[in-house]
Amino acid sequence: MHVFILLEIEEGSNDDKANEQELKGVLPGDEVEKPVVGMVFCSEEQVRSYYNNYARSQGFGAIKVSANNGSDRKSRYFSVACARYGKQKSIAKDIFHPRPLIKTNCKAKINVTAKDDGRFIIARVYLDHNHALSPTKVRHFRCNKALDPHVKRRLELNDLTGIKLNKNFHLAVVEAGGYENLPFGEKECRNYTVKARQLRLGIGDAKSLRNYFFCMQKRNSNFFYMIDMDDKGRLRNMFWADARCRVAYESFGDVISFDTTYLTNRYDMSFAPFVGLNHHGQSMLFGCGFLSKEDSDSYIWLFETWLTCMHECPPKLLLQINVRLFKQWLHRCF
């Protein structure tokens, strides 16, 4: 991958000396010009890209540690520092197995200020580290782990065709010429694949579902539904309850059973029904949901949506549910 960065050096006059530096696939040990006071960049992204490449060549990670924005929400100045910048306190509860501390109060960083013409200039530079650098392990740093669009697309396609993740990852290793040439690991591939599996609707399925819910609500205004979309506009979670469910809850909603251990559907979504008992001991359905993944955010969205559907009237007892997730929901609702 090629990264083009425009660098300029100010020499105390209005005449700027422009230099175009091409960083081709920067690897640990590659030569990257050290940051010096007076370097000028066209954008904040170029500053961070340059310092990330410099950090990768030297063997340390880089993070943005501070920033100040003006009234127009544009950056006035910011700092990019070593990933071990600042202090850290151990939060481990077991004193016999403390977690390793990453922060060492390293002072290595660059301070960047914005110019009136929209460019950014390096105002101060600190190059000294108080810890050993790790050029051979730099690819494992969080700032250097990234999946480009080509890799993401291939992971999704191979997952749809049934290729196992380990084989998919080993193929990327072979193409890159070794593990050391990959800016990501198998864990990052697995996390992205799980996220991409949230819900893959076929052509017209999402529209058909929305139209069906709309028609049901048009027939009966007491029909309730809610659809949760992700940041890419894909359907993620859904909930619905007809008029009969809502009326039955008013009479028999003291005790509710909630369980997501049912089989998933063709889209790998967990079925989440709200079930209760009537005065004859018969099961009654108080609402249904589909969850793309069983995490805290999905459960909280489902519980809050169901509570809205039932006129903000929570049950007296809720059975068969993860206690931690239920407490999080109660904390947000009350």
Structure description:
By secondary structure, the chain is of the alpha+beta class. It folds into 3 domains: 142 residues, no CATH class; 53 residues, no CATH class; 129 residues, no CATH class. Helices cover 30% and strands 25% of the residues. The chain has 8 helices and 13 strands. The strands form 2 sheets. Strands 2-1-3-7-6-5-4 form a 7-stranded antiparallel sheet, with helices on one face. β6 and β7 form a beta hairpin. α2 crosses α4 and α7 packs across α8. The longest helix has 15 residues. The two termini are 51 Å apart. The N terminus is likely disordered.
In brief, what are we looking at here?
The chain is of the alpha+beta class and 334 residues long. The chain is built from eight helices and 13 strands. The strands form two sheets. It has a seven-stranded antiparallel sheet with strand order 2-1-3-7-6-5-4, with helices on one face.
